[in-house]
Amino acid sequence: MNKNKFTLIELLVVVSIIGILASLLLPALSSARDKSKLAVCKSNMRQIQVAYQMYFDDNDGYYPTDSPQMSWDDRLNGYDGRNVPLSDLNSAWPLEKSLYNSEIYACPDDEISRIWGVDTDVLTLSYSPTTYMYYVNAGSINSSKRGITGFNWKGALDGYASSKISEINQASSTISTFEHMTEGRCLGRDDQSSVSPESFFLSTANVPHEGFNKSNFLFVDGHVESLNAYSTLSIDGGGMGSDTNTTGTMWDAHR
Asked: How wide is the angle at C-alpha 160 spanned by C-alphas 57 and 148, nearest 5°?
């Protein structure tokens, strides 16, 4: 009898040890992978901030607007490392996945398939600037849309507008850009590419980093934080706002 052979019991012991080691290592590997995706997402947002900064230099300090055919991300073309022809930027349709890529605009934790009408040849857009809506007749800003880019309203659409960075008084505690992930969020999607906090809080998909129960937020001063979404509704001096009234919260660029 060959004494070098493993017995069945010895093999079972080895298999059990391997199983125990795997059960210990897999959560650690999963956590490391989640942290890596979180870091890439933060890096994307910092690169968007760099594009904003260069855009400011050429546009008197104003954030890019949304408007028919030209989304805020379209307007960052050239500042963000892309070189999309103007004819494609001016199209009413999102950019085609078969021709371009999302580059810095797609979070690696964003796994939602995109579709525009029936078209799936579209690019993922994981981020949105905070929305702004100004009532011209009343001379006031909508309580839930107090962000950096949006439009004026005078009984109907009265032009597109955006905030000037020098007029935002609390840059270090004001959100400029956040994660927003739905199937209709496509790169180059004309004037519907920025959304309100109400839309953000409607979907748990906007807290994509599940292991951390957090979402990434880019602030006006350029830093990025991973925060529990509801903590962003805290009001300066105490109290809480809501998704329908963000006055005084981190979503308010006009406080």
From this structure: 55
Encoded amino acid at 84, one letter: V
For 117, left (φ over 0), alpha (ψ -120 to 50), or beta?
A: left
Report helix, strand or coil for 123: coil
Please determine, for residue 119, whether its predicted confidence score (pLDDT) is greater than 60: yes
Strands, sheet with 140-146, edge to edge from the N-terminal-most edge strand: 140-146, 131-135, 149-153, 157-162
Of 140, 128, 133, which Cα lies nearest the Cα of 192? Answer: 128
What are 122's strand-pairing partners? Answer: 96
Q: How confident is the model at residue 173 (pLDDT cuts 50, 70, 90)?
A: very high
* Segment 55-108, tens digit of pLDDT: 999 999 999 988 777 889 999 999 998 888 888 888 777 888 777 877 899 999
How would you classify the pairing of strands 140-146 and 149-153?
unpaired
